[in-house]
Amino acid sequence: MKTIIAFCIALATLSAFSQRTIDTEVGEFNEIKVFDLIEVNLIQSDENRISIKGRNVDDIKWVNKDGVLKLRMQLEKKFQGEDTFIEVYYTNLNVIDGNEGAKITCNELEQKKRIELRAQEGAQIKIGMDVDDVDIKAVTGGVIEASGLAKNQSIVLNTGGVFDGRNLKTSNSEVKISAGGEAEVFASERIDIDVKAGGDVTVYGQPKEVNKSTFVGGRIRIVD
After folding, report:
1. How many CA atoms lie within 13 A of 130 on its CB side?
2. Higher pLDDT, 213 or 55
3. b/e for 100-113, b at 16 or more Cβ within 10 A?
4. How many CA atoms lie less than 13 Å away from 11 in the CB half-sphere?
């Protein structure tokens, strides 16, 4: 019986240790880059700090250089961040960049003049926004899901990049796809589409002006 109790206590202690939290100030930044399957939740705040939770909290490596905050695992734990969750508190953010299967979520509406989103190597970004201009780039299996409002958007996809922007209501959109990619886009005034070497574009919003070009495959569908 004593052995069982001792085992349970040891197990509880180990679990508590593995699930502990690390909070640290990271200094001012306006761009974030996430790697190694790490999951990040972006939170608007009046301070710049991170809260690391889950497993492997001691193996997170962060660097803030010239206003670019990079979050990744230590080299010996590379690509092992799937059980690690980081809350990132920020005062201003202009560029969100996901890499190596990272998952980045912005649960609050991002309101600003301009924002840039990048996803590559299977990374995922999910965001709501109210902006004038947004630049979107998804390559090598990166996925970006956006909703809200934007006056103008520019989208570049290749090698399997995906943009789910049906719920991002824009006036003007520009879409460029090469070597495969999928885009769902909403535009009410004008859309320019250029597809090379395969790709699919679905357009919502019944834009008044549609300019489209395809080369060596590619499908463009305008939804009434």
Report:
1. 3
2. 213
3. bbbbbebeeebeee
4. 6
Q: What is the pLDDT of residues 137-148, one digit of tens each?
A: 999 999 999 999
Per-residue pLDDT at 81 exceeds 90: no
Domains of the chain in start order, with CATH, are 19-93 (no CATH), 95-224 (2.160.20.120)
Q: Which candidate, 58, 140, 53, places its Cα nearest to that of 88?
A: 53
205 Rama sector, left if φ>0, alpha if ψ -120 to 50, beta otherwise: left
% of the chain with per-residue pLDDT over 90: 78
More confident residue, 197 or 146: 146
pLDDT band per the 50, 70, 90 thresholds, residue 10: very low
What are the tens digits of pLDDT across the range 30-65?
Answer: 999 999 999 999 999 999 999 999 888 888 999 999
For the residues of the chain, what is the DSSP string, one character each? -HHHHHHHHHHHHHHHHHT--EEEE----SEEEE-TT-EEEEEE-SS-EEEEEES-GGGEEEEEETTEEEEEE-GGGTT--TTEEEEEEES--SEEEE-TT-EEEEEEEEEEEEEEEEE-TT-EEEEEEEEEEEEEEEETT-EEEEEEEEEEEEEEEETTEEEEEEEEEEEEEEEEEESSEEEEEEEEEEEEEEEESS-EEEEES--SEEEEEEESS-EEEE--
pTM higher than 0.70 for the full model? Answer: yes
| Whole-number Å distance between alpha carbons of 77 and 83 | 12
